[in-house]
Design goal:
This protein is mainly α. The protein has one domain. The chain is built from five helices and no strands. The protein has helices at residues 3-34, 43-70, 91-112, 119-143, 150-173. It starts with a helix and ends in a 5-residue tail after the last helix.
Length: 178
């Protein structure tokens, strides 16, 4: 196996793993406010899982980006990580990935600075995670070839649907009845 194939495989697996752990982070975050996971344990447990997910999806996302930068076939440049929609191929998919990276960097940064910023600002920045999750899903759908695999497709669409349904429930009903 040559290095580019290895980088490509690691990029695909780490991207999928980052997506799934990010989805779990969003699901547990919404569960804190909606009560949908109350049967699984106290809020303290759900909060711990929610907070731990960043320690998974952030490094997995960075691994995804790093291996794409090293993969000569992907032709992703450092500039593509900053300036969206300028890649030589797949500019929409890669551009969505760039915008998503920037939004998630803002979310992580404000999460670390939560106590130093106004709560309303933190909440609205944190809520950008919903938009970024939808964007990363579109990034994967438009840019990845893995959706032709039925298992990958089923898992990613299922995660997206659960996050979408929980977000809709959160918007429409707030805290769900227990």
């Amino acid at each position: 196996m040559d290095a580019d194939l290895l980088f490509w495989l690691v990029a695909r697996v780490s991207g999928l793993a980052a997506f799934l752990t990010l989805g779990l982070g969003l699901m547990t975050g919404m569960a804190l406010r909606t009560g949908v996971l109350d049967l699984l344990g106290p809020n303290r447990v759900v909060r711990t899982v929610h907070e731990f997910m960043q320690w998974l999806w952030v490094p997995l996302g960075l691994l995804h980006i790093g291996t794409l930068l090293l993969d000569r076939t992907a032709k992703i440049t450092p500039l593509d990580l900053v300036v969206p929609f300028q890649a030589s191929y797949g500019s929409l998919a890669i551009g969505l990935g760039t915008l998503t990276l920037e939004i998630f960097a803002l979310i992580v940064l404000t999460g670390w600075l939560k106590k130093a910023i106004a709560p309303k600002i933190w909440i609205w920045v944190h809520r950008l995670g919903y938009v970024a999750f939808a964007m990363v899903f579109l990034h994967a759908l438009l840019g990845g070839t893995d959706f032709t695999d039925h298992t990958v497709s089923a898992v990613t669409w299922s995660a997206a649907m659960v996050v979408g349904l929980l977000a809709l429930a959160r918007v429409l009903w707030g805290h769900l009845p227990q």
